[in-house]
Amino acid sequence: MSGPRVLVVDDDDLMRAGLRAVLSSDDHILVVGEAADGREAVEQTRRVSPDVVLMDVRMPHLDGIGATREIVASGSPARILILTTFEDDDYVFGALSAGASGFLLKRTQPEQLIAAIHTIAAGESLLSPAVTRTVIDRMARQPRPDPVAGRRLRELTPREREVLESVARGHTNAEIAELLGVEESTVKTHVKRILAKLRLRDRVQVVILAYETGLIRPGDAAERRR
Asked: What CA–CA distances, in Å, run from 79 to 31, 36, 72, 120, 143?
């Protein structure tokens, strides 16, 4: 059975070897290449066409955030999973804004890393509560909603707007289905349409857009989950 094709990117030789060993323990994951810096990551992504790029942040020549931005801008369908030792807000927000689909710390357990690869490869995003809070806190510091971004929301139907708000608050498809009284498959269809209409890659970008436009405000997520 075919599974995710993964490119491992890290400037530490020992770390790359360890990551390859962890991922190779899953019969459904194929490590198709390695890169030691961001520039090489961009070139390797073009050459080997991975489904997932497991990307370090601090690297020579071109860092992981810059490499993520270039890969996304190139139109590559590869999805980026950031793996780093750093929890700094600037790294988190920078990576997500650049187009990363997930963010994990290097102290993550091997089984969690493997599960994350499958999640990202399946087209979902990996947005933990801690990362969601980082995005919310950063957007809260913006002086006012972005009117240009706000105009994009006019393309949505009222129901799609409801779904977008729920996604931005961190609800899963199953939770949204329960909230709206519809089938989970219906929610998935709405999410796909939202991503297509707004030209977004995944749910991570939905969260960022929702706060950029002022559609939801800091505190809304906490209130809904009480």
From this structure: 14, 18, 8, 7, 31
Q: Which of 156, 96, 163, 164 is nearest to 125 (CA)?
A: 96
Give per-residue pLDDT as tens, 97-133.
788 888 888 888 899 899 989 988 887 776 655 555 5
* 195, 201 contact by CB (below 8 A): yes
Per-range mean pLDDT, top range of 46-55, 96-105, 112-121, 140-149: 46-55
Query: What are φ and ψ of residue 141, in 5° steps?
Result: -85, -5
Alpha carbons 94 and 58: distance in angstroms, whole number: 12
Total-model pTM: 0.70
For residues 136 and 153, give the distance between their C-alpha atoms in angstroms, rounded to a whole number: 19
